[in-house]
Request: fold
Amino acid sequence: MNGAESLVRTLVDSGVDVCFTNPGTSEMHFVAALDKVEGMRAILALFEGVVTGAADGYGRMAEKPAATLLHLGPGLANGLANLHNARRADTPLVNIVGDHATYHAQYDAPLASDLKGFASPVSGWYHSSPSPKTAAADGARAVQAAMSAPGQIATLVLPADTAWLEAEGPSPALDIVGPAAVEGAAVDRIAALLKNGKKTAILIRGAALKEDGLLAAGRIASKTGARIMCDTFTARIQRGAGRVMVDRLPYFSEQIEEDLAGTEQLILVGAKPPVSFFAYPGKASWMTPEGCEINVLAHPHEDGTGALEALAEAVGAPAEPINVAKLELPDLPTGKLDSFTAGQVVAHYLPEGAIVSDEAATSGIGPAIYTATAVPHDHLSLTGGAIGQGLPVATGAAVACPDRKVVCLHGDGGAMYTLQSLWTQAREKLDVTTVIFANRSYAILNVELMRVGAENPGPKALSMLDLHNPELDWVQLGQGMGVNSMRAETAEEFAEQFAACMREKGPHLIEAVI
Amino acid sequence: MNGAESLVRTLVDSGVDVCFTNPGTSEMHFVAALDKVEGMRAILALFEGVVTGAADGYGRMAEKPAATLLHLGPGLANGLANLHNARRADTPLVNIVGDHATYHAQYDAPLASDLKGFASPVSGWYHSSPSPKTAAADGARAVQAAMSAPGQIATLVLPADTAWLEAEGPSPALDIVGPAAVEGAAVDRIAALLKNGKKTAILIRGAALKEDGLLAAGRIASKTGARIMCDTFTARIQRGAGRVMVDRLPYFSEQIEEDLAGTEQLILVGAKPPVSFFAYPGKASWMTPEGCEINVLAHPHEDGTGALEALAEAVGAPAEPINVAKLELPDLPTGKLDSFTAGQVVAHYLPEGAIVSDEAATSGIGPAIYTATAVPHDHLSLTGGAIGQGLPVATGAAVACPDRKVVCLHGDGGAMYTLQSLWTQAREKLDVTTVIFANRSYAILNVELMRVGAENPGPKALSMLDLHNPELDWVQLGQGMGVNSMRAETAEEFAEQFAACMREKGPHLIEAVI
Reply:
């Protein structure tokens, strides 16, 4: 058994059974091992930004890492932007990066690069495996590192000779250290604060945004009047009918200031104090109101759900939470297709248990409003601001949850970054419906241009934000990659098409011209 | 005048008048300055790999840097693979990377990252401009650094407040230090070696692969019998009728060994000793034959052309070189379309002064053979092995040389990496004809799988190299981005379509099904 096979066996034994990849010569032994080892599903993508984004979407839903398999420094480099997003999502992810044979590195061949330099900014754990004798153990450690709470990116470099030389055999899975329990004293301290009569917001991030954590938070709110909040962009949140509704922080800094005005204490559950996404001239970056006290119930590596449940008990919360969403489906709209009518259609037809991968940017407002009272679903958003995440994350989520419908809501500008995702969806027959909101613009930048104080923009500046010339034809782009694609120009057309996509399994694309 | 405007003015004053970009919020002041400053052409691309690859193609042809404008660390990250290729090509290039305002960095907002970490592996020069007072001078230094021989990547980080705060004004252009002259003693030493009767190869890299350098090399060869060679992958070489023919090093290590067998001395002109592209079990990495002496005529930062001209005089070379290509155009083929018949068509119709951007990989063999005796043209190849370079490089070359036809020969696998290039070609009405060799495969990897010793590959391994399921439809992909696209399945169809593309200006795409 060579090093590559010992590593693949170890990954499978450690529970990593999906590998998203775009391999090259230096990865051929890992690729060859896929047929020798039972239980590893290999999924090809035509660009590494799809590979890493899909591994992120998979990890968010499966709550365990997928492996990637990338081709040396440049292959990793192509995947870095979505690894940045995955890092911001605290997604467990095992990056396997092939490299030149150890003895070949000295020759600085064309594909040689500072691989560690590329990997370090996104990796919580990094190791290059210098020998086939240790590759398996290094793989086990990588999985353990990826799973260390709240989840992180572990990058393991596999030189070609480590892969092809004789190894000892697989290495046993290592123990996973789950989230640490929050101590009772910390819970009691927060419970006492919740009785001080101050206007309180509880800001939650991470796994506590799933149903159980939200239930506990809603119970606390019903007893204490505290407000339940989440960040503007959340890796994963469970929402829809029957679930506690959460106030999402607005995007722009002055909106956040207005929203948090009067808040006297902030309780953090896995979250950081809110800051503005960008800096703007004359506007604040730090968003906690002056005089508001910041308190931590749970750090990111701690068990936020358990802490909220303990806190609910400590404050004597009732069994029933307040602010539970009641099922309320919008009627089907007619006429103009825009973010709001599209949102009504999406909310109307969304099937129970759907997963929404949301990179709709300015077009996401309508869907966000109307799906809040739709059937229960999971919502995944763009965590690190690096656009081009939505299509790959949808791809990976569909691999993780084959029995759930995935709906990807995407702006046209961002979708062009990683449109190769559609081919993988077609190849793997994934149950993803992609809605491209085609406003032919980086619409958010028209807003931002004003906000940063760049007044009276001229034609050259405005043309840098405009995608009209030429217009992208998403039906042809989708069809060209094997995905059944259609165009909707009215609310009625969109409703008919979206309904059909929700009925039929498999990949579909709707270009929603808005 | 704010910092952004002072920087744009300085770039223009320093001769940088093209900016390839995909900007975001933190770059809006730079974007706004484009209308305030005369003389900077801004070209939008829908993905940063296109931005950086286009800047590479531009720099190779214009012999001066284009600027990029990228959106923080993740925007830079998306451009890194083609920056890796540009680094290997020694292309002059000024990367401008927007960043959070200096005072905002402390808050670790979602888009914050280790920007220097991402940039360092590809940058010969790196600086973050902390103040609007120094941004202009930093810009002038970046251009100077990019132009320092043989050319390199200079990355200048522009924090948002540096861009928006009041600046002093533009900074004057700095002197460019051109390639250093090779000393007479070095020339004389090599001249003496060329009389020792040893079997000699002169390996040339860089600017000396243009007409003048090759003429001198050919004269030396005609006097001394030395063999004139170039690397497997060259940033730019001038070839075709009337030019000295150069032996290109083969790709695979055992072919190089055979090719160089018996060589007793190697003279390097801007080149490094040859090494194999990848390591293979049991095969050598170091390709200089045992006992062959390595001598340097010119280092990469030195004037290789001048050195070759001086050497030609020193050895008393005749005015006329040997091995000059005579115009020999293949007849038009019929029947099966493959790399060879396609190559005959390309060579037959290639217009004088064409620029060939070649990432055809396994399909490039035919075109390489037949264009060797076609009309004079420039040939740009994939320098760093990071696939997805050919389409962007063609885009940038067309911007640099608007009066020359650009022909991009590309494998289908690599083309999917940066297909967004087609939209920029359509938007800017660039005179690029793209030929996609559609073999529905990462064909080279089928060869490599065997070469690395991964025997009896199974169906999972083979499926990772196969692009049949589903087949990409390049006509739809091209049309979807506004490029007039067509499909050829026979040599006759390809000849008719390619001829039409050579007659008409503007972007075209031919999917050559082979």
